[in-house]
Amino acid sequence: MSETMPQEFWLGVEQFNSGQFYACHDTLEALWIEASEPEKSFYQGILQIAVALYHLSNQNWRGAVILLGEGSNRLRRYPSDYAGIDLEALLNQTVALLQALQQTGPQDKIASDDLGEADTLPLPRIELINET
Fold first, then answer.
1. What pTM was computed for the model?
2. Distance CA 22, CA 36 (A)
3. How far is residue 123's CA from residue 19's CA, in Å, rounded to a whole number?
4. How far apart are CA 97 and CA 99, in angstroms?
5. Exposure check for the chain: N or C terminus, fewer CB within 10 A?
6. Burial class, 90, CB count within 10 angstroms (exposed 0-12 / middle 13-18 / buried 19+)
7. Which of 73, 67, 68, 65 lies closest to 110, judged by CA?
8. C-alpha to C-alpha distance for 124 and 68, rounded to whole angstroms
9. What residue spans define the domains of the chain?
10. Cβ of 114: how many Cβ atoms within 10 Å?
């Protein structure tokens, strides 16, 4: 199934994994606008997680929490290995970060060294399924 994904999707994955969350948003949004289901919601779920991480980097706790929840809920509709992506791993990492942020609660300013439990968690990464 991964060979059916457009090259722009893989660019978005690279951008996500390298922390270029706004660029990932732009790349996946262009695909999302033109896509039909089931890819449309798949792109949107990853896009929402990327925007959540962008919000987190800008100390926007509320935006991060809302979009981590929306993105992970949207991706739960897909098999754990959809389109060559290990969605189970992405969802587990996203939910762990979301729960840590919820436990920390909103603050006037959040920074990576001021997140309480959340700072001990790595940011979610998109892992590929090993195809052998």
1. 0.87
2. 23
3. 9
4. 5
5. C
6. buried
7. 65
8. 10
9. 6-120
10. 12
Query: Among 3.30.1050.10, 3.20.20.220, 1.10.3450.10, 3.40.50.1100, what is the CATH number of 6-120?
Result: 1.10.3450.10
Q: How far is CA 111 from the centre of its chain?
A: 19
The tokens for 6 are: 């457009």
Asked if residue 68 lies in contact with residue 52, where contact means CB atoms within 8 angstroms, the answer is yes
CA distance 43 to 46: 5
- 3-class DSSP assignment, residue 128: strand
Tell me the pLDDT of the chain (132 aa) as tens digits: 445 899 999 999 999 999 999 999 999 999 999 999 999 999 999 999 999 999 998 889 999 999 999 999 999 999 999 999 999 999 999 999 999 999 887 764 444 444 444 455 679 999 998 753
